[in-house]
Amino acid sequence: MPTLLAPALSPRDHDRRTARLAELHTLRDLIAAAAGIVAAGWVRRGWFVYVDERGDRRVAMAPTTRRAQGRPVVAACLVGAVVQAGGGPAAARSQPVQRALELVWHTLDGDPATPMRWCQAPAVREAHVSALARWNDSPSRTRADVLALLQRAEHRAEAEIHHLGQL
Questions:
Q1: Is 4 domain-assigned?
Q2: What is the pLDDT of residue 61?
Q3: What is the extent of the structural domain holding 75?
Q4: 81: buried, middle or exposed (CB in 10 Å: 19+, 13-18, 0-12)?
Q5: Helix 143-166, helix 95-109: angle, nearest 10
Q6: 5 in a structural domain
Q7: Which of 46, 82, 86, 127 lies most in the core, judged by the most C-beta atoms within 10 Å?
């Protein structure tokens, strides 16, 4: 009995799939690194806790996150941990950080059966970041909750990797 073979991918489709897989691996690793940051120290109502030039711990809020750039970060909120894992405040608007935040938001707020929308409008991305920050800052939130969300997001990236690998 003859076997049915899936049609071969065009070189362009193969390159797109390979690039997508590489990006998903990067996102998974970035989110895992963010979990490590939160495990070491977590904060509410601030993005980072960093050590200044005098050795004092300072909380960096959204408008002052650049002050933490290049300084030891000893704690971070959910969003701050993703930003720190992606290269720190200078990388906050980079594609890997933005897409990792979208993946975390979708894991928190989205239906797992709904496909990810990776290229959101800037206003939508900002709303998602604000929603993640509000979720992190909830008085009932715990570090364990944040770590569990990051773990679910990491698993979501792994599922996407597995799915693409099956195509």
A1: no
A2: 87
A3: 18-166
A4: buried
A5: 100
A6: no
A7: 82
Confidence bin at 1 (pLDDT 50/70/90): low
CA distance linking residue 10 with residue 165, whole number of Å:
16
Element housing 73 (H / E): strand 73-76
* pLDDT per residue as tens digits for the range 98-119: 999 999 999 997 776 666 666 7
- Of the candidates 57, 79, 78, which has an alpha carbon nearest to the alpha carbon of residue 67? 57
Residue-level pLDDT at 8: 67
Assigned domain for 11 exists = no
Instruction: Kindly report the pTM of this predicted structure.
Output: 0.87
The pLDDT score that the predictor gives to residue 81 is: 97
Reduced to 3 states (helix: H, G, I; strand: E, B; else coil), residue 139 is: coil
Q: How much is the pLDDT for 70?
A: 84
For residues 94 and 87, give the distance between their C-alpha atoms in angstroms, rounded to a whole number. Answer: 9
Residue 25 has what pLDDT? Answer: 93
Counting the structural domains of the chain, the total is 1
Whether the Cβ atoms of residue 49 and residue 75 lie closer than 8 Å to each other: yes
Report if residue 2 sits inside a domain: no
Question: What are the CA-CA distances from residue 33 to residues 8, 37, 89, 112, 130 (Å)?
Answer: 36, 6, 15, 22, 21
